[in-house]
Q: What sequence folds into this?
């Protein structure tokens, strides 16, 4: 190695035998390793973010905090992740782990693994960043079947959650989609449990994301975490139980959970918030974490339906939301404006279309197309109050336009 050495982080219970043995080997210079002990995942993350170059992260298989996100963060810093101790219940390769060795490893075993997976580091060398973390989620699984996602959003009070319900029911009305449509509540203030008169609040989004921290679920396991909204014709994933529960959602685990849903359902309709601001727009990493659900779903969605209402204020809010989404990284071609509680006269609808096009002209969202109009339904509040599904006509036009766009995207 021409005088270079491996710089290794160790994360395990302080009484683990290999943890101390590795420190002894490093101190005695029996192996060319600079070794730094960590007693918690938080400490390991802080070390990874320190700016020092790392060759590898050695972590005990039963260590608290060993999950998809920690592996991803280590690999982003250029550190190979090596698990010490075998666990038959974990598919480590799916998390991006490079190798697994026994707890009673010999010196030669460790050196062999480091030579194969961990880059030696010269003194003063900066950390290298990797683009592919090998976690097997999202676009990394190009050969695996994947459904389509439609996100529904809009300013508060526009009825975006109701529109998401109507869309999901409209898509599920197609006999070919029977049992293959899921409505997922990804809003911070989740309302779909209320709108469906759900007597249960568990399991839901938190349990789904938590289950994907350490691996990938089978289709039947994913379906066991959702509810069959039989009267509506689709399955339902309940959302956060409290607004502050967003702090428990980690990015890589969420991406893996959404990937699992899309591998289990042909169509996923996601009810999301309209705020997708992140650190680049606000300078705050906390705001980006808070908006993680909406940001992730909006950017992964094949179609994003943006719901507004008629009138001066309604159209202004709709335009502003569309522009924010485009500036936040959502492709304009994916956006579908929807006017809820729309007037019935054709002349007034044509006027609304004209005003919307004029306000979007010369903006980043110019040319996204004409809006879909959802009519006012006087019996809607009565239906929701009694846990009944919205009438089929409410989402029929919206579902037809979404199907048309999805088919066009498929070519």
A:
């Amino acid at each position: 190695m021409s005088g270079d050495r491996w710089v290794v982080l160790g994360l395990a219970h302080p009484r683990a035998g290999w943890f101390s043995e590795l420190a002894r080997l490093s101190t005695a210079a029996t192996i060319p390793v600079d070794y730094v002990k960590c007693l918690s995942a938080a400490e390991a993350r802080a070390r990874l973010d320190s700016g020092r170059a790392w060759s590898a992260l050695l972590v005990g298989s039963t260590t608290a905090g060993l999950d998809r996100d920690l592996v991803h963060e280590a690999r982003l810093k250029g550190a190979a992740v090596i698990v010490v101790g075998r666990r038959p219940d974990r598919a480590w390769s799916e998390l991006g782990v490079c190798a697994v060795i026994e707890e009673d490893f010999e010196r030669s075993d460790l050196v062999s693994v480091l030579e194969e997976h961990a880059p030696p580091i010269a003194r003063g060398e900066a950390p290298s960043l990797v683009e592919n973390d090998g976690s097997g989620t999202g676009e990394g699984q190009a050969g695996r079947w994947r459904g389509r996602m439609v996100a529904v959003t809009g300013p508060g009070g526009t009825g975006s959650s109701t529109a998401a319900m109507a869309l999901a029911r409209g898509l599920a009305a197609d006999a070919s989609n029977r049992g293959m449509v899921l409505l997922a509540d990804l809003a911070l203030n989740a309302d779909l449990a209320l709108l469906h008169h759900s007597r249960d609040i568990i399991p839901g989004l938190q349990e789904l994301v938590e289950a994907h921290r350490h691996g990938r679920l089978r289709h039947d396991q994913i379906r066991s975490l959702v509810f069959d909204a039989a009267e509506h014709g689709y399955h339902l994933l309940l959302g956060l139980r409290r607004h502050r529960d967003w702090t428990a959602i980690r990015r890589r685990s969420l991406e893996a959970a959404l990937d699992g849903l899309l591998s289990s359902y042909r169509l996923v309709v996601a009810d999301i918030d309209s705020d997708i601001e992140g650190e680049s727009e606000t300078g705050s990493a906390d705001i980006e974490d808070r908006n993680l659900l909406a940001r992730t779903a909006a950017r992964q969605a094949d179609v994003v339906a943006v719901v507004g209402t008629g009138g001066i204020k309604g159209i202004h809010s709709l335009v502003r939301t569309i522009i924010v989404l485009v500036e936040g990284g959502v492709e304009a071609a994916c956006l579908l404006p929807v006017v809820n509680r729309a007037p019935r006269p054709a002349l007034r609808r044509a006027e609304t279309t004209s005003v919307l096009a004029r306000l979007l002209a010369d903006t980043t969202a110019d040319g996204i197309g004409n809006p879909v109009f959802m009519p006012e339904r006087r019996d809607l509040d009565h239906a929701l109050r009694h846990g009944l599904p919205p009438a089929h006509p409410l989402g029929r036009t919206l579902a037809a336009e979404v199907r048309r766009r999805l088919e066009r995207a498929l070519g």
About this structure: The first strand starts at residue 6 and ends at 11. The domain at 142-410 is CATH 3.40.50.300 (Rossmann fold).
